[in-house]
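Annex B, item 7. Sequence and structure tokens for protein A, then protein B.
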Amino acid sequence: MLQVTIKETREQLASIIEQVSVGNKQFLITKFNKPKAMIIPIDETMFKNNTKKLEDSFGVWKGRSDIKNSAKWVAKLRARTSTRHAKISS
């Protein structure tokens, strides 16, 4: 695993990504000599599994009958929580 600073990462990002994707190298990114992040090659099977889960998550809203017209639903929600529209009695 190669170690680079955040500054080096900014300056050489395209080269680092090329080395990771083509050369299968791994980079540890440090800030003040402390590890902060890693750049590693994508595991294709993990990527496919995550993509499928992401697609499935959009279906959560599919069965909601109270949000058929999302603009009206949001307006109603905002009206309930807004203090600007409250009547002030004198």
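Protein B:
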Amino acid sequence: MRQWMVDPRVLCRKHLLGEHVEHHMLLGTLRKKKSIQGYLDSNLLQPSTIYSRHRQLTLEMVSRGYNHRSPIHRAEADFHTEYLSEEQYHHTIDRAPALKDLLSRCPDCRRRYDKLNEEE
């Protein structure tokens, strides 16, 4: 599971849809009250943003003409994170290394990133 926590417009189709589905996988993991500490230690998750980040991703999906039929409700995300410690819940991803990692892995995301920077 991974949240890139970069501007969703940067994400290629594969990474946009992948991060989206991983939010649902994360919610399933939280429903089962499984440990997510390894993901936190690896700078892959930011639990306090499950609802808002999912919303950002779905807005980008819709703007690209993709169908979205799998909402996450705020109450559901909040309920399933109650067992996390304060430190776990408020863990934040260091976005600069995450972006660097993404752009080094994916030429399609790199092109989208470069194009967005040219436009701004």
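Comment on protein B: The chain has one domain: 8-119.
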